[in-house]
Design goal:
Layout: H1 2-50, H2 55-102, H3 111-123, E1 157-163, E2 170-181, E3 186-191, E4 199-203, E5 207-209, E6 230-234, E7 240-248, E8 257-261, E9 274-276, E10 281-282
Antiparallel strand pairs: 1-2, 1-5, 2-3, 2-7, 3-4, 6-7, 6-10, 7-8, 8-9
Helix pairs in contact: 1-2
Length: 292
C-alpha cells in the first residue's frame, strides 16, 4: 500500500501546486479586470461631463467593453480550471480511501464526525455556473437526474436500496461505491455508516447517484424540484433516506430545501418542516420494479 499512497500523495501535491499557480494568476486577472471596469466607468463619466456621444467615443467605449469582457472570460477559465483541480484531488482521495479499506485498513469514524463530513461535502458541493445564459443545467445538477448510461465512479456517494439483514426490510441508505461490474451490471457499495460496515452487491436499479453540482435558484430554478414534489430526502443526523414532500425551495445557492417527512403519528401525516441540502434530495420513480 505504500506505493499506492506515495503515488496518490504525489498526484495530490502536483495538483496543489497547480492550484497555487492558478490562484496567483486569478488574482492578477482580477486586478486587471478591475482596471478595465474602472476605465469604462471613467470614460462614461467623461462622456457625460463633456456631453460627447460621437461615433469615435462610441468606438473607444466598445473597445473598452471588449477588453473587459476578454479579461472576465480569462478569469472565468482560470476559476473553472482551479475547481477542476480541486475535484481531481477529491477523486484521488476517495480512491485512496477505498483502496486502503480493501486492503484491511478500515479506520473507524465516529458518528458525530461522519455527520459533520456529510454536511461539509454537501455545503462545498460545486455550484453549477453555465457558460451560456439560459442554458439548461446538465445531468446531476440539483434535481436533474443522471443519464441512463451513467456509471458512478469509485468513491462516489450514492443512495442505495438495501435489505436489512435482520428483518428483510428494504431501506434507502447512503453508500460509497467500491466497484461497478459491467458484465453483471451490478455495483459493489459499502454502507457509509461505520456502525453497519456492510457491503452490498446491487443492480443499477437499486442505485441512485447523488447530485454532483448544486443548482443556483437565481439562475437555474428549472434544476430544482418544484414545490409539492414527492422526493426521497436524507433525514437530518442519519444516513437513511425517507419519503418527503418539498415544502419550500431554496432562494439562494447556499440555502437548503424545506421538506415535510411522512409520519402517520401526526394529524396531517407529516412531521414539522426540516431543512435538507440539495445533495441529499433525490427523486425515485414509484411503481418501478427494482431487481436485486
Amino acid at each position: 500500500m505504500s506505493f499506492v499512497d506515495d503515488s496518490a500523495t504525489h498526484r495530490i501535491q502536483e495538483r496543489l501546486k497547480n492550484i497555487y499557480e492558478l490562484v496567483k494568476n486569478i488574482e492578477s486577472k482580477r486586478i486587471k479586470s478591475e482596471v478595465s471596469l474602472n476605465n469604462i466607468t471613467n470614460f462614461h463619466e467623461k462622456m457625460a461631463l463633456n456631453n460627447k456621444k460621437t461615433s469615435q467615443c462610441q468606438q473607444k467605449l466598445k473597445k473598452l467593453y471588449d477588453s473587459a469582457i476578454k479579461d472576465a472570460q480569462q478569469e472565468e477559465e482560470l476559476l473553472r480550471s482551479t475547481l477542476t483541480k480541486i475535484n481531481e484531488i477529491r477523486a484521488i482521495r476517495n480512491k485512496r480511501i477505498i483502496e486502503a479499506r480493501n486492503a484491511g485498513n478500515k479506520e473507524s469514524i465516529r458518528r458525530g464526525t461522519l455527520m459533520k463530513m456529510l454536511q461539509s461535502t454537501a455545503v462545498t458541493l460545486p455550484l453549477y455556473v453555465g457558460k451560456i445564459p439560459g442554458a439548461k443545467a446538465p445531468p446531476l445538477c440539483g434535481a436533474v437526474p443522471a443519464e441512463s448510461t451513467y456509471i458512478a465512479s469509485m468513491g462516489d456517494i450514492v443512495a442505495a436500496l438495501v435489505k436489512s439483514s435482520s428483518d428483510e426490510e428494504e431501506n434507502w441508505i447512503l453508500a460509497e461505491v467500491v466497484n461497478f461490474n459491467p458484465v453483471t451490471n451490478k455495483y459493489e457499495v459499502d454502507d457509509i455508516d461505520e456502525e453497519q460496515k456492510d457491503r452490498h452487491t446491487l443492480s443499477k436499479g437499486r442505485i441512485v447517484p447523488l447530485p454532483l453540482m448544486r443548482a443556483n435558484p437565481e439562475t437555474d430554478s428549472h434544476a430544482l424540484f418544484p414545490k409539492g414534489s414527492v422526493v426521497l430526502a436524507l433525514y437530518p443526523q442519519t444516513t437513511c433516506f425517507y419519503k418527503a414532500v418539498v415544502n419550500q425551495l431554496p432562494n439562494s445557492a447556499t440555502e437548503e430545501y424545506e421538506v415535510l417527512f411522512e409520519d402517520a403519528s401526526y394529524a396531517d401525516g407529516y412531521l414539522p418542516p426540516l431543512n435538507v441540502n440539495q445533495r441529499y434530495v433525490i427523486s425515485i420513480k414509484e411503481g418501478k420494479k427494482i431487481t436485486s
